[in-house]
Amino acid sequence: MTEHQKPDQEETARIIAAMSMPASPPPQGRGRRWLLGAAVVSVAAAGVAGAAFLWPEPEPVPQRLGPRVLVPPLLRATVGGDDRIFALVRRSEQDETDPPGTAAPRDRIELLAFAADGLAPRLEVHLASVQRGAIADAALIAEQGATIWLWLGGLGALSAVDGQVLADGDGLAQLNAEIAEALASGRRTFRLADALVVEAGAPTRGWRIDPRDFRASPADGPPARPLPRLHPAALHGSGGPTAFRIAEARLEATWFGLPAESTKLVPPLAPMVQGRFLTAATLPPGMRQALWRGQVRVTSAAPSSAPPALMQRWGVGERVTDLATVPAAAGLALAGFLTAGTEAPLQMAGPPGLLLLHGEAGRRLSLMRLGPEGQPLWHAELPILRLRSVLPGARHLTLVGWGATDAEEEVLSVALDSGAHARRAVSA
């Protein structure tokens, strides 16, 4: 019985065995190797429109591999108590016997996993070898119940424990006739809810797939049994100058804002748009910012110029009072409260706080942890100039970004109690 089997191990094992699916090739190209064409619609399935081929290699030809390139998004999940970061990467692949300077005819697609607390390697699995540039939309989707859903020319599932193939489109279709046509179409017909949901049928209906036995059931009703928590892949961006940053945040009733350093905030501060107290406009390059704090109170919404006799006509609303600057966080450039790509800032616990990211364009970014009153608890200079993705965690924050060039992509693990960080180059 393997470590990654679920509470209903025997049923899951029976279903997977019925799919007659081979294990994914071992790392470094040993043993059997998959070569997939550009039209392939499964993770590692032979006989799909003649697009995939498998042949034995009793004496495999040594391969010459290029540097790794990250295929976003990344995925964070806990497997047996081990907090892991998962990533797909591509690298050029060719036989070592090819003459020097010969262009590589293939890309190798691999699944990597690292420990979130220090980026120690956990997995390195060779998933597929494809024609150069094929399956350009490959991506991790989500993790649920130690099963990783991914798109690799088609829908597939891998074990989060050892990276081995658990299911592919053909296997899922054989088990679930209701979604067979949608899976065979090769289109992205899925969405995420309490599980991965495949949109299929006419009229279109959602079918929830249980990651423990890969059986589909109608998504508009409750699941037959409680589902494990689903962890979607992280959001990612192109590394803009204010990526993953917002200009204001709250810690319960305490408000924090980062206006231009020359701006004087006067209480009571009224909201502008959608409850925000600062303009959403991006500050001009080179303009410095200052950190302000205040208290959000529900008070009269009347303007200060309103006659006392008419104050009640304005009703009440949120206003920021007791405004003051935080002198220890002044003169900041391109600063914002760190998010995971949403409009909500990441909030720390023990003690409560926020993360503030800043850094001048073309220079290294810096990360600051703020305490409940806005006081800096630590300040860390990061080895990246642009931020691509943020994966929050209880004790360690994972950041992905670029150095001086796009070829210098790094994964960072930042300890939230101290700001100490480990780094791993994606190309290694």
From TrEMBL:
Asked if Transmembrane is a keyword of the record, the answer is yes
Ranges annotated as spanning the membrane = 34-55
State the source organism's domain of life: Bacteria
Q: Which UniProt keywords apply?
A: Membrane, Transmembrane, Transmembrane helix
Q: Where is this region: Disordered?
A: 209-234
What is the official name of this protein in its record?
A: Uncharacterized protein
